[in-house]
Amino acid sequence: MDKTKDTLKITIEKAKLGNQIAFSTLLDTYWNNVYGFQLIRTRNENDAEDITIQTFSKAFDKIDTYDDTYDFNTWLIAISKNLHVDLIRKRKRNIFENTGDGSNEAIKRVLDDAPSAEDQLIREQDLATLLYYIKQLKPHYQQVINLRYFNELSYADIAVELKEPLNNVKVKLLRAKKLLAEVIKNKK
Length: 188
What we know:
Elements: H1 3-16, H2 20-42, H3 45-61, H4 72-99, H5 105-111, H6 117-134, H7 139-150, H8 155-162, H9 166-187
Helix pairs in contact: 1-2, 2-3, 2-4, 2-9, 3-4, 3-9, 7-9, 8-9
Organism: Sediminicola luteus
Family: Belongs to the sigma-70 factor family. ECF subfamily.
Domain RNA polymerase sigma-70 region: 34-93
C-alpha cells in the first residue's frame, strides 16, 4: 500500500470513530469528484449540490458499512448515483400522480400557480413551525441555514459572508441539516 492509501485508511478509521476532522478531510478530498459526477448527470447546479450533500450525509451516517476492499471514491459515487435515481423516480411519480386521472386538472393547477387562501395559511404555519425548530439550533447553525435557504446564497457566497473556508461552510451546513432533522424528529 502506498502512503496515500495508508493515509486514507487512517482517515476513514478516524471517521468511523466520529472524528469531525476526518469527516471534513473526506469531504474536502472527495467533494469535487461527487459534485462533478452529479453536475454531468443532472446538468443542474442546485440538484448536483443537493445530491452531493445528501451523498456525504448518507455516507457519513453509514461509514461503518464501508468495505475497504472497494475504493472510497467508488463507494461515494455509487451512493450518489442511487440518490440521483431516487430523485428521478420521485419526480416521475409526482408527475404521474398529478396527471394520472387523464383530466386537464393537473394542467390547470400548473397554469394557476397563485396559492389559494388555504394554501397560503398552511405555508405560513409550516414556515412558523420550521422557524421554531431552527431556533432550537446553536446560533452558528441557525445562521448557515438562514443564509442558504432563506437568503438563497450559494456556498461560495456564504463562505464570503462568514469569512470561512468553503469546505467549512459545506460541513457546517451538512451538520446543521442533520441536527435540524433530529430536532424535528424529537419534537414530533
